[in-house]
Amino acid sequence: MVSEKLAVSKHVCVIGAGPSGLVAARELRKEGHGVVVLEQNHDIGGQWLYEPNVEGEDPLGRDPFLKVHSSMYESLRLLSPREIMGYSDFPFLVKKDRDTRRFPGHRELLLYLQDFTEWFGLRELIRFNTRVEHVGMMDYGELGKDLRWVVKSKEIITKGGLDTDEKMVEEVFDAVVVATGHYAHPRMPSIKGMAAWKRKQFHSHVYRVPEPFRDEVVVVVGNSYSGQDISMELAGVAREVHLSSKSLDITEGLSKVLDKHRNLCLRPQIDLLEEDGTVWFVDGSSVIADTILYCTGYSYAFPFLDTKGIVVVDDDRVGPLYEHTFPPSLAPSLSFIGIPKKIIGFPFFESQAKWIAQLLSGKRTLPAWNEMMRSIKDFYNSIDAAGLPKHNTHDIANFEYCEKYGDNVEFPHLEEWRKVLCLSTLKNLLVNLETFRDSWDEGDEKLLQEAFQSPHFTQLGSQVLTFQSQSERC
Length: 474
Prior knowledge:
By secondary structure, this protein is an alpha/beta fold.
């Protein structure tokens, strides 16, 4: 709802300088707010800031405060084509002397985020090497209207060489935007014998390169995309790779991969782990493994946040959140950006950022508390009625929802070419798991030309380098 009140400026803390935190900082400043971004790493990027050194990290990610944030592995390439990923006013252009592929490696996306940061002058807003230790309420007014937040952070100061010092800082903010992402804290299964198993166990959070697994027998737990991608890479060096899956109904693409890699086989779920290295599966089969690698996804975690129990994480449901963003009792002074999954992320984060910024300035208002709570309850009931597990609460997979969300701030709807290219990629992935990033059909070629001629790609006046057609690359 649009408000006729005079705009006000708030002192706002954004936690995290990844894709969601950066666009939040830009929109907040654009709306006239004072912005401080606290980032635990030495540079922007969040997950996309690759960290090869994981030696100090718990291999199963059991520490509430992780030493390593990024879960990127060295060979990772984007799952989505670059042309659909950019913010609405900053296209993800192909640049000379960089990774020009449609599905580039992770470093290219980091460079895009660095370009975004420099273009909009955001670096001056960010305090690097600063980890948030605690966020708590200073005052608790009526339904959060007079709420302010105490933020305690720890800055790591380099003194020279390897010497560092720590500086604790306590500040008060009118509002806090949590933008810490959701691909850092491992979600672990519960398997009988897991605690007593004597051999190597890792979560994919600390997987970086395949070489340490050379000539080993590896069990990969989890048949999601990361599990498949890492299994294919491990098949090039390991003696055997056993991909353990909840379901043995597989896609055409995975079937092709299994036919190609004779040392890669599909297994059902694990039933039991024995101390001598034996892994028993639910069908009664077994294998003696050197390593178990858990590609079992990630959990939402906010170990620094104290809301007195108002916001909780229950089986990966962060709630209660109105539209996956606002806790009704604390909004708009506390908000979350980047919670939803299975979306075209960057444009959605941008629409979230605009709504948060305009609510804080008073330009717009949220519905009444009881209306927001009723909406959340109805949404939870719809999930239950559909038979979906609670941990899928924030899986959107719906273009209409994203567009309806954007309508709250008159954010432009996703272009048709962007939606069709997204769906086309998903279809290609299911059929051509190992090659979808480098081979696509003529329909995509036509859509790419339409995309490059659209206002999204021409708005900055930059020359767009197009991709080679299939025939040119053959």
